[in-house]
Amino acid sequence: MRTSTRRNVLSKWLKTKAILKDPAVRGLVPETRRMNEKSLREMLDRYKMVYIKPETGTYGNGVMRVEQGNGFYSYQADERKRVFTSFRSMYRSIVRDKRKRPYLVQKGIHLLKYKGRRFDIRVMVQRDSKRAWEMTAMIGRVAHPKKIVTNYHSGGKPTDVRKLLRPFASAEKLSRIEKALSNAGYDAAKALSRTYPGLNMIGADIGLDTRLRPWIIELNTNPDPYIFRHLADKSISRKVLRYARALKRIPPAHNKPVP
């Protein structure tokens, strides 16, 4: 098996193919295909709602939510939603919007909502001093009310996971959900690093559907470690940043002068 020592993998397609090799992770990954007219039509016929996204890119830029209804098709990019009477007319518009960039199409997950806004969970997994993977933190990301993505840089709001999940689960069930999220992130990191052993920090974006089933939406190999500063428990962000510095992913902390 070919492996790579790179520390960052930009292609969402390559990352998806890598983790699909692992039986423990495969069932957590929504069906994902390279997008063309045929694959988009087939996926829409099957799932009625899909997300399409650039094969490379960050911050949720270029992501679109595409839907098929009774006699209409629609897609939303950023805050703009467009409606069409035929698939062909919609597809032509999507092609113009994607500007020749290669895209993927992914089964749409109907995410849980907090006060009417979709949210997902960022699970941070980092290598420790012995290069073993460790789940170090998780945080919820609540989408801007007018947008389809949860990314912080696209207006998403970082929020404590327990606050988001409390309306859906008892304390006991909430702990089980957190464990499932942690395991999903950890297993995904292990699976991806079998193909890319040079990786040392992974942010797994995991969505929960209305049955509280976790889905691995995307893996980020250059995740923002500073987002965890939004958590009330500052020991969590301190740990994430300490690991990130040890892995040389962020600059060392400035030494404070001794008074």
Automatic annotation (TrEMBL):
GO terms for molecular function: ATP binding; metal ion binding. Pfam families: ATPgrasp_YheCD. This is YheC/YheD family protein. Gene3D superfamilies: ATP-grasp fold, B domain (3.30.470.20). InterPro entries: ATP-grasp (IPR011761), YheC/D (IPR026838). Residues 21-245 form the ATP-grasp domain. It comes from Cohnella thailandensis. Keywords: ATP-binding, Nucleotide-binding. The keyword ATP-binding applies. The keyword Ribosomal protein does not apply. Signal peptide: none annotated. It comes from the Bacteria.
